Amino acid sequence: MANTNSIPQNWHETLTGSLKSERSEEKLIALDFLCQQNSISLEFAQQLMPMINESVVHHDTQVRYFARKTRNHFFDCFPEIESGAKEEKPFKLELTDGEILTTQQILLHKMRLGSRYVVFEAMERLTESGDASLATPLLEYLLKEKDEYKISYLVRVISRIDDPRIPDVLEDFLAHEDPRIVANALESLCEYNRPEIEDKLVDFATSSDNRIRANAVKGLHKYSPKLAESHIAEMVKSSNIALQDSGVYLLRTIRPSNLAELLEIAQHSRYATVRMKTLDIMPQSADERELAGLMKKEDVEAPDPRRDLFLMAFFLGLGFALLLLADPGHKQLLSLFFLIISAVTLLSHEKTRTSIQKTALSMGFVSSLAWGNTRLMVLPTLMGLWLTWNNQQINRLGKIEKAPPETVFAWFFAIGAIVIHQVTQDELSMTFGLISKLGSEGLRLPQALADMASRQSRFELAIFAMVSLMTLLIMKLNKWLPSKTPYESPNKRLFTATVVCLAILMLINLFHFWGLKFQMKISGINSTLAILQQLQP
Predict the structure, then answer these.
(1) Would 458 be classed as within a structural domain?
(2) Is residue 260 part of a domain?
């Protein structure tokens, strides 16, 4: 944009005088004119900005509206004005002698008054301005205030200000005992992208308080639309007038994919107020109907006997192949094969819990044909049985329930741990396991062999404990160690934790393997055959 000013000089004084005027009509005319101008200079825009910012918190709602419109227009035309505004010093209430109070300072002082209506108006005007410098005094006020009505109101409107601290404070208010505060905190949190609070939203979506429930469902729709729509259906079909009323509110604001079906139900409600509110809801457009059709075709696994028969035949064939190939020369090939199957299962984490359960149990039983000597095999098998079991195979949506990513990553880790352990320890494990058994049955063992067998036995117990604890850590990672940044993907953290744990296990197994090999070399044992020769009388 050119910095030449096409507005006549005498208009400068007119616009400045109008913005400084106490009359709302004059301010409106000036602001309406300025928000449509594209040819004023940067210097003149900077000169007007303090007066525009004052108008943003004006007592007249129309003045505030056009002031915000003008301010945003100036920010679009002159980005340097906006960047300069963001570099301003934090807002302070303290004044020096002779300093004149600004409108914002007056409103902040009004918030300390006893009258709730005066306080509410001050909160409305301050937060409507969107001034980021107000975040600190408003948050301090929110944390110190005891009046639940004032807290409730500010919690609802403070999300208008863009500050990263606000959603964290709002989340703390979800534990408040006053349902109005909880409902308003949920309403404000809907303005942010906070996938980590999805579990809390799921809990609040079944609240007996209709406002808490409605706002929780509204927020949940961003992260799990199908689940949110099932809750909306429950509310619309409820016999409770408050839940029906909130359900119709959600139909109007969210416009879910099942809008047509639920709107017809609401239009035949026994309550006149509910029926009247449905008149404001427009029917689904062609685009919305197309989107609804796509959502209904969402890839959700359904019971399929033919597919299950095919998979059973596949695992039987796999078991037969393992019986033919399960010798030390093929262990590396088998390990790679099972690792590939585990990786495919991990990448298909949208499979249902029942599907994961069947795969885990099948792999556990079939792999025991190749690795029947490892204690670790019990971990993925038990996980497949207990952590993914789903009675009736139906979730709250009436669909087959999907496997939680935490369980799938933990299961993949357990399979990976088995592969690593077998590749590095299989020969030693079988040999020293046999020696330990012979020793327990009374065979007198050379001291060196007895020490190495005991060392291997203790190591396998330690590995079992470590893998068990690491598996538990992966499953509970996002709960025990929540992300400090709201934008970090939970699945990315799970993947990183899984890779790190597998790398640690690899290093520990290799360290033990080479340590035991070194001990054998010192004792003059160069092969497995040499170990067996020492057992001869």
Answers:
(1) yes
(2) yes
